[in-house]
Give the backbone structure.
Amino acid sequence: MLQLQAIRDQKDEIINALKKRNIDAAPLIAQVVGLDEKRRATQTKLDATLAESNKLSKEIGELFKTGKAQEANVLKEKTGSLKEDAKRLGETLNQAAEELQTLLYQIPNVPNPLVPAGNSDEDNEEVFAEGDIPKLETNALPHWELAKKYDIIDFELGVKITGAGFPVYKGKGARLQRALISYFLDKNTEAGYIEMQVPHLVNETSGLGTGQLPDKEGQMYHVGEDDLYLIPTAEVPVTNMLRDVILNEKDFPICYTAYTPCFRREAGSYGAHVRGLNRLHQFDKVEIVRVEHPNDSHTALDGMVEHVKNILRELQLPFRILRLCGGDLGFTSALTYDFEVFSAAQDRWLEISSVSNFETYQANRLKLRFKDGEGKSRLAHTLNGSSLALPRVLAGILENYQTANGVQVPEVLVPYCGFDRIE
């Protein structure tokens, strides 16, 4: 959430910056500024009314002490009127504050200057690519056919149990899935991230804190009776551990990693491009989350990008990194890098990670602050990234490592799963 002070002081700069998202934010910003002025004016009137009421109360006490009851009763009538005014102003103030909060939730984060202009994912900027795309045999299969051939993932059984988008992993498929989770967690903890186990459901306040709520696209599963939400990513519970916390500069950096299942409704996702593991309603992911001093957050973002690079190098998967354009940038992100693995069998790139810096946007919602060297309270910067999301990594492994005699397992995973080939 953008800071009100910033909106007041940098209104034109923010409007121009949000144009990179292809948004005309001027009307919404004008509403915010106007409502904020109303709120502040109401607060001033309320403060003056309460001050006058308190002053009269003291005068009434003095008049009663000196036997001037008639004068005191006249003033008492006036204080009664002031109390009614104060009640009315308080209600107006609360309503204005609620409306202002609702408006602020509708404004996305301001893109970092590094974010390229563009309308869609076609305008994302490739900043790095590495690895040789394997040349498969002419009869190479996509991962959903390989899963059926080797009986390692059952999509139909998942439909029977729950519905489309909830696959069942079997035998070596389940073991390979578990191996990837353990490998990702080990790589993250070796890099200094503290492993956490967190709830898979969160309350509304947590969803608001990291920006998943208000849920404009209907992506979150809601448990109505308990008013809880199934998490779309571990980012939500992990980052919310620091909600309403005041840190010290010496606490930075704060680095967490967590494995969780993730649940996303993915409304409107149909077609061949989402077949198999390409898009699911439930999937496993290992996340990394950092909280940084504002001076260090973009260096930390670069470090997170290098960390994910090294994992993909060990898996020996061809990958590329994209800097997302304004039109494809997530609502809460200031700067995002997407990692994509090339699927030789599908002949296309599959997104397997997003690494983002939210700068102060989430921290303002979370009231996540720190005391600087002068004792002033400032907003921290939050970052997160997939390290990694499993479905498309697994799809890339199955498709790129397939041979006439089965699917080889990346060497780095063999100690984790206990076999080197699926056949």
Summary: The chain has a mean pLDDT of 94.
